[in-house]
Known about the structure:
It is a single chain. By secondary structure, the chain is α+β, with helices and mostly antiparallel strands. It has 4 helices and 11 strands; from the N terminus they run βββββαααββββββα. It has a 4-stranded antiparallel sheet with strand order 1-2-5-11, with no helix packed on it. The longest helix is centred in the middle third of the chain and has 15 residues, at 150-164. The protein is globular and about 55 Å long.
Amino acid sequence: MPKHTIKTACLVLSPVFFILSFMPINWKTNSSDFSPYTQKISGTDIGIDLSPIPSGTFMMGSPQGEASRNVDEGPQHKVDISAFWMGTYEITWQQYELFRERKTDDLNEGETRGREIDFGVDAVSAATAPYIDMSFGMGKNGYPVINITQYAAATFCKWLSAKTGNFYRLPTEAEWEYACRAGTTTAYSFGNDPSQINDYGWFYDNSDGKYQQIGKKKPNPWGLYDMHGNVAEWTLDEYSIDSYKQFANKTSENPWVIAEKLYPRVARGGSWYDDPQDLRSARRQASSKQWKMIDPQLPKSLWWHTSAPFLGFRIVRPVKTPSKEEIEKYWLKPIEDN
């Protein structure tokens, strides 16, 4: 048993991950300008880099024979994914704190790529300030934001959409795995050999006991950094150990298991606190009330997971903007944790 599997008051974790080797993918997109870009945030010199993820079909989950496979990674099933952009890096403290502090809300003249949606930034809920340093002293400049709830991550996306006019949201679990695999079918986007993980991700043995600055390891084949390790990343989906059974023996198009309760929901990618097998592409992680173990608020905060310094997120922007009604579903509604 790894020495860090003993749970502590500030590090409570249930690991989750996946597998890949190169497979043919049907790539297609309706966008006439489907290229990498940087989303500028008006009133600041801060931007968010996004990489194009082409549409295609892949096998979601892990095969029976994959090393360290968990039962919740199957059955494998075929999924069609529409094209989208994904954050090249995990969202950083500098980016997230623009949303939390709300000092630039009245400055909305920044560059956009189409003005897909138009609503006032003042309609977006403001996050409460944390009562302690949520970086836990591990660093903020160039580091991924941590300790935030799924609702906080989704609301950041809503705020960013209002600021820029472009529709942003969290990835679905299927989109996340598809982007992580990047056309591969092996356990990791770089193959099946976990000994190579040191070149691609931060994990327990190489992280020096904390998260690291974004983009310091090699990217996956589609140019995304830190998909394996550093911090685990929120997706939109509700977690169930048998989620995939409903998709077996058919091809699903852009599946999303909409959450009906607060716990558990799905995080992906593994973190600096995990072992290599927990950084696999198919590995799934269920959220837990223990991630708010030291939160003294009643009801507990909608915004902060005070015992989850291994948890962050990255954003996506679909090529095809959904309807107004669909958009509201993606931004999630608050559910208090009593």
